[in-house]
Amino acid sequence: MPPPSRHASGTPTPSPRASRLPRLAAGLLASSVRALDALGAAGGLDPLITPVQKAVRALPLGRARDVLHGRQTGHPLHPLLVQVPTGAWLSAAVLDALPGSARQSRVLVGVGIAAAAPAAAAGWVDWAEQHEQQMRTGLVHAAANAVAVGLYTGSWVARGRGRTGWGRALAYAGLGVVSAAGAIGGHLAYRQAAGANKTEPVPHLLDPGWYPLGPLADLPSGEPVRRTLGEVPLLVYRHADGRVDALADRCSHLSGPLSEGTVRDGCVTCPWHGSAFRLSDGWNVRGPATAPQPSFETRTTPEGTVEVRLPGAG
After folding, report:
1. Which residue of 4, 144, 147, 243 is surrounded by the most CB atoms within 10 Å?
2. What is the pLDDT of residue 16?
């Protein structure tokens, strides 16, 4: 076998096969990203979306719906809940590679199956309030997770019947499927921004200080209106007593226009998905939004000009 060729400096020249590996890895990664992007454009899934969405929205969950959205925790609950089944199943895979741990592995598989139910419930209520590209990707994500749960259920049953080898095989297959589902979920969360706070950039788009919005007399009483402050649209509401409230106009959930929503009992309701925010401080009192709206301080000058500023801007 001939020795590897060398540069003039004496260092070995990489073989053609070695130089192809990084390009092959980069190509595979690029192809996987394109495949994940294509899920959001898969219009063939749309006939499934409407009936499933209606069914999820019709569930009589009451206040539990906001809990599943994660309103009380300040961000979606689903990513927290999925840690339990994923961790249990990964731990089972490690134990399956060790002798004498069949009983412990079966317990962990069962824990993962049980914990998958609340995680799925939280995921479904979030999914039903997303836009169409996110819903397409989310439907594939959910289907892959359902397959994984089915494989793990088969594994748990097989182990209980003494077919440990078959149970391990099903579990490893389940781990592969749930890993793919996790990749789709990561794409949904980070590339498609499902669950992200859409108002997070607002403080970074404004400098500190007071800004004039216009004469108080130009604001209709009891009606939400839209005003623009640089690159930031605002919802401005004048109360009957002359007080003025101002919030970032784009909903923190999916950027719905709050100025086109309805105002009742001191709260504005987003016209897109029904999130409700207090006008006085922007607090989210009803989901699916999990983050409050940036709330502006307001004042009216002696000349009758309304001015606003955002605490923490800059």
Report:
1. 144
2. 63
Torsion of CA 64, 70, 72, 75, to 10 degrees: -170
Round to whole Å and give the CA distance between 163 and 15.
47
Q: State which H helix or E strand residue 227 sits in.
A: strand 225-229
Query: 230: phi > 0 → left, psi -120 to 50 → alpha, else beta; which?
Result: left
Determine if residue 209 is left, alpha or beta; phi over 0 gives left, psi from -120 to 50 gives alpha, anything else beta.
left
- Give dist(CA 221, CA 201) in Å, integer: 30
Cα–Cα distance between 206 and 224 in angstroms, integer? Answer: 22
- Is residue 176 a contact partner of residue 209, using CB atoms and an 8 Å limit? no
- The DSSP call for residue 250 is B
Q: Identify whether the C-beta of residue 154 lies closer than 8 Å to the C-beta of residue 170.
A: yes
